[in-house]
Write a structure and sequence with these properties.
With 98 residues, this protein is an alpha+beta fold. It has one helix spanning 2-54, and strands spanning 67-73, 87-93.
Length: 98
Amino acid sequence: MTKRIFRSIFTVAAVILLASFVLITGVLYEYFSNKQMDQLNMQTHLAAQGIESAGEEYFSDMDISGCRTTAVPISRAWKTTPTARRYIRLSKPVTARA
């Protein structure tokens, strides 16, 4: 009888622990995904403002050796200012593959 009670308590504790891990992981994933999207949005707006103020020379003085920079043409619907017409450059960290 004692063995059965102990097994039941242990099983319930394991299930609650697993459920709390899943719940916490889901909440943290959602939080950090939103945080990363906000930061990417801010960086894109800052890059657009840099292009507006300095043109494409804005990127010439940057040390972006650890990032891949891609020039993406903006469609006419996305053009907001005359100087930021041509390109927005998005940076993405480069990961080394083994």
